[in-house]
Amino acid sequence: MRLSMARVKQSAGNAIDFNFDERINHIKVKRENVRFVEPVKVEGTLENLGNRIFEVRGLIRTAVEYPCFRCLKNTKVNFNLIFSIKFSDIPAISREDEVVAFSGEEIELRPYILEEILLNWPSQILCRPDCRGICPRCGADLNNVNCSCEDEDTDPRLAALKNFLKKD
Ligand SMILES: [Zn+2]
Ligand SMILES: [Zn+2]
């Protein structure tokens, strides 16, 4: 994912489009390797904004596989992310907030793209919105089976009510 700066460096307003489609095996999430199940596709524009600030903006599309928060089943998670990163090769500018330093004629985008994915990592991954999870007592996958643990826990008054309703 190397972006050549040569064609935009000369003057403000210069811009080029780019398109990457790269196979990446893993992304590290909380020290754990998470597998990409689709290539990482990045398309966008590199633009010279003037004052030696260069903006890379576009769209990241990919998918990973991650265990469901409730039942641990491997779940495909799709990413469709709009991103924008500003770079500068002048240290004084890149020390400012939100501007990333670079030097030379190229920017290797890959680490920044992986960072964007991490920043947008879902707080809770579910195999489906109503996943019922695993029974904490017997370990049964409650999406597939109904274990009887829940009934045993029921408040006796509720149990009486349940039995009453069952009679109908
Ligand atoms: Zn689940
Ligand atoms: Zn159970």
Q: Could you walk me through the main structural features you see in this protein, from its secondary elements to its overall organization?
A:
β3 and β4 form a beta hairpin. The protein is elongated. The termini are far apart. Helices cover 20% and strands 40% of the residues. The strands form two sheets. Strands 2, 3, 4, 5, 6, 7 and 8 form a seven-stranded mixed β-sheet that branches. Strands 1-9 form a two-stranded antiparallel sheet. It has two domains: 2-130, no CATH class; 132-168, no CATH class. It is of the alpha+beta class and 168 residues long. The structure holds zinc ion (2 copies). One zinc ion (ZN) binds at residues 68, 70-71, 73, 126-127, 131.
Major β-sheet profile: 7 strands, mixed
Please tell me what the overall shape is. elongated
Radius of gyration: 25 Å
Low-confidence stretches: none
Secondary structure tally: strands = 9
Average pLDDT, to the nearest integer?
Answer: 90
Order of helices and strands: EHEEEEEEHEEHHH
Distance between the termini: 66 Å
Bound molecules: zinc ion
Query: What's the number of domains?
Result: 2
SS class: alpha+beta
Share of residues in strands: 35-45%
* Count of helix runs: 5
What percent of the residues sit in helical stretches (DSSP H or I)? 10-25%
